[in-house]
Design brief:
single chain; mainly alpha; 242 residues
């Protein structure tokens, strides 16, 4: 159990300029909603599994380039027959688009001074998750991770790591990020320079800022950026391949 919380905290505070799990799932669901009835439930499940797969790199300890690509277009994603592959490409699209918006918005400078400079990128990721988690059917998404897409075995990642990744995602979507930080602090985990007490303070700050107008407005604008891009893409019906 302690290992699960340590893994969650490690990924949450990663300094990589990329979205975290719930933000990826939230935007993936908005994309699928834009697609209307073009995709069946199996396709949607495999798409979500695919869009959360690339960050397995943290656990598998592989280079980012093996699971992420640059220059992915929504039009290309819309024409994928394979739901998992489409979801995987969507992950890279979200990371690249979001990173551009974060820099343009100047939101990192708006975070409280108490947040250390080297922790701001990671903190913003979990703040986004804290805000978006209420807009997700997290139980439904948790259930998706009882299924492993056959394509996951094509990346030379040991099967036990893939299984562990699915268990991590199921566990992560079971609670708000602020609660994950609270529990980690309660069981006296220490993460880098953060003491258990600081993890608890991080939890309190997450809950506070998730209701702050500045960051609610930021996430609304982030959502709008993606929605506008989605509307420019025409969708044709697809079915899951597995």
């Amino acid at each position: 159990m302690l290992a699960r919380y340590l893994l969650a905290i490690t990924i949450l505070f990663s300094s990589a300029s990329a979205a975290s799990h719930m933000t990826h799932a939230y935007l993936a669901e908005r994309w699928l909603a834009h697609c209307g009835n073009a995709y069946d439930d199996t396709y949607k499940r495999n798409f979500i599994i695919g869009t959360l797969f690339p960050d397995i790199r943290y656990m598998a300890k592989i280079e980012r380039a093996k699971t992420h690509k640059y220059g992915v277009s929504l039009k290309k994603i819309a024409y994928y027959h394979d739901a998992f592959a489409a979801g995987k490409q969507f992950h890279s699209y979200v990371d690249e688009t979001r990173e551009g918006f974060v820099k343009k918005s100047g939101v990192l400078a708006k975070l409280p001074e108490i947040i250390q400079p080297n922790m701001r990128v990671g903190f913003l990721k979990i703040l986004e998750d804290e805000i978006f988690c209420n807009q997700l059917d997290r139980k439904k998404i948790q259930n998706y991770f009882y299924h492993i897409d056959p394509a996951e075995y094509k990346f030379d990642i040991p099967s036990h790591i893939i299984q562990k990744w699915h268990e991590h995602l199921n566990h992560y979507f079971g609670r708000r990020p602020s609660l994950t930080c609270t529990v980690a602090g309660t069981v006296h985990l220490r993460f880098f320079s953060l003491t258990p007490q600081q993890l608890k303070q991080t939890s309190t700050l997450l809950k506070k800022l998730a209701h702050h107008e500045t960051f609610i407005d930021y996430t609304k604008k982030l959502t709008e950026i993606f929605d506008k891009k989605f509307k420019k893409v025409k969708i044709r019906p697809q079915k899951a391949t597995s």
